[in-house]
Specification:
The protein is α+β, with helices and mostly antiparallel strands and 281 residues long. It contains 8 helices and 14 strands. Helix content is 34%, strand content 26%. The radius of gyration is 18 Å and the shape is globular.
């Protein structure tokens, strides 16, 4: 637990492993036992056929909310399912209390279809700044962590994204068209040009991890939900990458961003893609 005199940095130095343990336990208790064993009554639609929720999402988030709140008294949790039930919960991101940003199953569509391309995302933010993140691909037994200013790591090995290899097309994962406005569709279509090879995105958290590992050059996304982006954006930053909105500013988890935005394995690539997106708006 944290007392009134402990800073966030001191809490992270002492409890980062405890957060990882909480994430692993939630996945072991609520997610993995349902993987490839979901029944029809355990799956629901939210806004449409591409926006699914399962009992694993709901129960894992409830468990994480309890366990993370106990680790850091005075903190609040902004979870995807809690915000779906009560959108006012999202306002905590703009407050002074430390905020846990939780996506219990990122890539629910993949999870429902028995694909192992899903993960659990947890980030800790304070006054609008993401200070730490945990990304757990439970079905692949991969765990990535990042602490601001201290680097990004996958299973204990430090991540360095590095610049893309010269002379080849940039591979960019992009938003599903169901989640874009007409203006955003125009911007994203601009990526279909010489030197860029767009493809549809899967789990946002795993796409960010691929950028941080230097396996994917960039992402270009058109929605702001903090639980999809907070953990991965810090991973990319701490691996040497960068993220930019169409105004040339970094993405803000508190909202108000000019979309689409991009996150890339180096600053030059982020600037190039933001310019391509911005020219089409």
């Amino acid at each position: 637990m944290i007392d009134n005199t402990e800073t966030i940095d001191e809490f992270l130095a002492r409890c980062s492993d405890d957060v990882e343990e909480a994430v692993r336990k939630a996945a072991a208790a609520e997610i993995l036992p349902r993987f490839r064993r979901l029944t029809a009554d355990e799956v629901d639609q939210k806004s449409g056929p591409h926006d699914l929720v399962t009992d694993a999402d709901r129960l894992a988030e409830l468990r994480l909310t309890e366990d993370l709140g106990a680790l850091l008294p005075g903190s609040v949790v902004v979870g995807e399912e809690a915000v779906h039930a009560n959108p006012a919960v999202y306002e905590a991101l703009r407050g002074d209390a430390p905020v846990w940003i939780v996506d219990p199953v990122d890539g629910t569509r993949q999870f429902v279809h028995g694909d192992d391309g899903f993960c659990t995302l947890v980030a800790l933010a304070h006054r609008g700044v993401v200070v730490a993140s945990w990304t757990y691909a439970a079905a692949r037994d991969q765990f990535a962590r990042a602490v601001r200013g201290q680097g990004a790591f996958l299973d204990g090995e430090r991540l360095f994204a590095g610049p893309p290899a010269p002379g080849r097309d940039l591979v960019v994962a992009t938003s599903h068209p169901d989640f874009t406005t007409d203006e955003q569709k125009r911007a994203l279509r601009a990526l279909w040009t010489d030197g860029i090879a767009p493809r549809p995105c899967g789990s946002a958290g795993l796409e960010y991890l691929a950028v941080a590992r230097g396996e994917l050059d960039a992402v270009a996304f058109s929605w702001e939900a903090a639980w999809d982006h907070a953990a991965g954006l810090l991973l990319v930053e701490e691996a040497g990458g960068a993220h930019l909105t169409l105004t040339g500013e970094p993405f803000r988890v508190t909202g108000g961003n000019t979309l689409p935005f991009t996150a890339a394995r180096d600053t030059a690539t982020a600037r190039r893609l933001a310019a391509v997106l911005g020219a089409a708006v």
